[in-house]
Amino acid sequence: METTRLIIVAVGGQGNLLASKVLGEAALIEGVEVRMSEIHGMAQRGGVVESAIVFGDAKSSIISDGEADILLGFEPAETLRAIGRCSANTRVITNTATLPPFTVGIGIGAYPEVDTIKQVLKEKTGGLVALDAMTLAKEAGSPMSVNIVLLGALIQTGALGFSKENVIEAIKRRTKPAFLDKNLKAFELGFEAAAAGVV
Questions:
Q1: Exposed, middle or buried by CB within 10 Å (0-12, 13-18, 19+), for 192?
Q2: Beta carbons within 10 angstroms of residue 160's beta carbon
Q3: Average pLDDT over the chain, rounded to whole?
Q4: Order of strands across the sheet with 127-131?
Q5: Which of 1, 73, 70 has the alpha carbon at shortest distance from 34?
Q6: Parent domain of 82
Q7: Per the structure, how many domains does the chain have?
Q8: How far apart are the C-alpha atoms of 70 and 154, rounded to whole Å?
Q9: pTM of the model
């Protein structure tokens, strides 16, 4: 596999770390070398969480500005904030359901329009898949499965080159039994949504 650099950005509590573990497990099943690093925000819930995952032959998990091959965003404003990590060839998959920071809630900050975020991402990167992962997660039976919905969308794009079956196996290995059925449904819903070309 050619070296592929993936950035995942999320807000604390959205399941970024589980998504990273699932992709790491899938890489092991695929026989692909993988290196990961994580940056946690100021708060356990509500702070920014970023994971950098490098698949293939690489000496470091550091992904510098402009180096990401894929950007996976669990929250649209955080996806936009990470655009500096992208190039004109980066594939972007983002959730469109918003989680505005508390500054917006108390009236001292402004949240950009989601359509504006999508337009900027389209113009500055190599491709965009944008979907309401929260609605699909709720349809799957758990609003906590936004992360797995987005993994389904990511795998459908083919950007990683991992087989659907191997990622499903990784989900089975990394998900607690009580959440497995909902996560498998969430994965399928995200996969199907991306196949429909949701933007």
A1: middle
A2: 24
A3: 92
A4: 34-40, 48-55, 4-11, 70-73, 91-95, 127-131
A5: 1
A6: 4-195
A7: 1
A8: 9
A9: 0.93
CB 152, CB 195: distance < 8 Å: no
What distance in Å separates the CA atoms of residue 31 and residue 180, rounded to the nearest whole number?
24
pLDDT exceeds 70 at position 45:
no
As given in the structure block, the two tokens for residue 6 are 């993936």
**Dihedrals phi, psi of 144, to nearest 5 degrees:** -80, -5
What token pair was written down for 118? 């999508």
Q: What is the pLDDT of residues 153-198, one digit of tens each?
A: 999 999 999 999 999 999 999 999 999 999 999 999 999 999 987 7
Structure tokens that stand for 93 in this block? 């998959």
Question: For the domain that residue 83 is a member of, what is the CATH number?
Answer: 3.40.920.10
Kindly report, residue by residue over 176-185, the tens digit of the pLDDT: 999 999 999 9
User: DSSP secondary-structure letter at 46?
Assistant: T
